[in-house]
């Protein structure tokens, strides 16, 4: 047995020597290491500086995802293609160089009268005494998305006017979205409506990203002594209580690589997207209705409950309500419009204003 071992040992050593020589000294392996070295230099000298330069814009895209226009290949100037045959398309100028695409749907009871009418007729209807809703949508797609059309149909069936704008950079609206820009866009639509609606109620319905736009604008108007007649917040996110990946997608790296934060600055340093909803709610004085599905994967129900409690403490539980929908119904983040109870819930809220 010892002879056998002593005989195999040199053979084993020689085989390792051959392997090491082939692996490390062959020209092919040397070329491989050279390629890896060049790739590392490319990453260090090109990719990292490019990331530092482009990260704020990339995060801006992920927050708003305004370039994802669903459904595809639609003509937003033709709302009748989406069964909104008592709706007109129009464009408002938010500020110089910014044009906003907006749909105005009149109450369903006026659909026959609305056929063939022009923009002037639609504008005049805003003073007919019916409540007016401005719907602020979320961060993907356009005003033609099915769940947004669904909300417009519900409100119209209840006898309300509905205006659904696309923010700058969304749909057929021009410009690039920023937090301040979205507030400016909403103010444009709100002021346009108030100038034409006389004493009619004007209610704001914000969904997802739109809840941040709604509360930001409410805070800005408070400085002028203006309070919204009523606010509905559906799927409201809360940047204080949520770790929302789009706001800093590289945050997890900071724990592993000290100092990397010097390369990847926190995106909110540019004040492009903060949406301090919780702080805004502490100052708001409008009646508020929170709507939330228990199976919402983007904004957990626990966050919705905490956000509601902040708003309720700032006012009281009579002026601030939370209505939740069972997770077994499968509504997730966008599907509340399918609930048969929703029209009555909204109607009671409007009647309370």
UniProtKB/TrEMBL annotation:
<keyword id="KW-0472">Membrane</keyword>
<dbReference type="GO" id="GO:0006660">
    <property type="term" value="P:phosphatidylserine catabolic process"/>
</dbReference>
<dbReference type="GO" id="GO:0005789">
    <property type="term" value="C:endoplasmic reticulum membrane"/>
</dbReference>
<dbReference type="GO" id="GO:0004622">
    <property type="term" value="F:phosphatidylcholine lysophospholipase activity"/>
</dbReference>
<dbReference type="InterPro" id="IPR000073">
    <property type="entry name" value="AB_hydrolase_1"/>
</dbReference>
<dbReference type="GO" id="GO:0052651">
    <property type="term" value="P:monoacylglycerol catabolic process"/>
</dbReference>
<feature type="transmembrane region" description="Helical">
    <location>
        <begin position="37"/>
        <end position="55"/>
    </location>
</feature>
<dbReference type="GO" id="GO:0047372">
    <property type="term" value="F:monoacylglycerol lipase activity"/>
</dbReference>
<protein>
    <recommendedName>
        <fullName>AB hydrolase-1 domain-containing protein</fullName>
    </recommendedName>
</protein>
<keyword id="KW-0812">Transmembrane</keyword>
<feature type="transmembrane region" description="Helical">
    <location>
        <begin position="6"/>
        <end position="25"/>
    </location>
</feature>
<keyword id="KW-1133">Transmembrane helix</keyword>
<dbReference type="Pfam" id="PF00561">
    <property type="entry name" value="Abhydrolase_1"/>
</dbReference>
<feature type="domain" description="AB hydrolase-1">
    <location>
        <begin position="131"/>
        <end position="221"/>
    </location>
</feature>
<dbReference type="InterPro" id="IPR029058">
    <property type="entry name" value="AB_hydrolase_fold"/>
</dbReference>
């Amino acid at each position: 047995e010892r002879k056998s071992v002593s005989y195999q040992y040199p053979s084993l050593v020689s085989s390792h020597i051959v392997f090491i020589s082939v692996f490390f000294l062959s020209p092919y392996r040397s070329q491989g290491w050279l390629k890896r070295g060049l790739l590392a230099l490319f990453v260090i000298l090109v990719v990292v500086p490019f990331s530092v330069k482009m990260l704020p814009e990339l995060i801006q895209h992920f927050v708003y995802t305004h370039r994802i226009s669903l459904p595809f290949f639609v003509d937003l100037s033709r709302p009748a293609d989406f069964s909104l045959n008592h709706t007109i398309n129009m464009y408002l100028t938010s500020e110089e160089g910014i044009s906003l695409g907006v749909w105005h749907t009149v109450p369903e009871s006026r659909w026959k009268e609305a056929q063939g009418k022009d923009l002037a007729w639609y504008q005049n209807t805003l003073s007919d005494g019916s409540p007016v809703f401005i719907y602020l949508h979320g961060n993907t797609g356009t005003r033609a998305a099915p769940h947004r059309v669904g909300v417009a149909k519900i409100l119209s069936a209840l006898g309300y006017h509905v205006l659904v704008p696309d923010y700058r950079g969304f749909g057929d609206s021009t410009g690039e979205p920023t937090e301040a820009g979205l507030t400016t866009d909403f103010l444009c639509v709100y002021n346009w409506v108030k100038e034409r609606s006389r004493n009619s109620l004007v209610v704001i319905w914000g969904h997802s990203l739109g809840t941040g736009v709604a509360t930001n604008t409410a805070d800005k108007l408070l400085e002028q002594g203006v309070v919204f007649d009523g606010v509905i917040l559906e799927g409201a996110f809360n940047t204080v209580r949520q770790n929302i990946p789009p706001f800093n997608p590289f945050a997890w790296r900071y724990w592993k690589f000290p100092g990397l934060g010097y390369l990847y600055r926190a995106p909110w340093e540019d004040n492009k997207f903060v949406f301090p909803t919780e702080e805004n709610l502490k100052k708001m004085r409008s009646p508020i209705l929170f709507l939330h599905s228990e199976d919402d994967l983007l904004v957990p129900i626990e966050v919705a409950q905490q956000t509601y409690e902040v708003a309720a403490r700032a006012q009281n539980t009579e002026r601030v309500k939370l209505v939740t929908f069972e997770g077994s119904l499968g509504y997730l983040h966008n599907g509340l419009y399918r609930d048969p109870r929703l029209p009555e819930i909204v109607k009671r809220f409007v009647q309370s204003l």
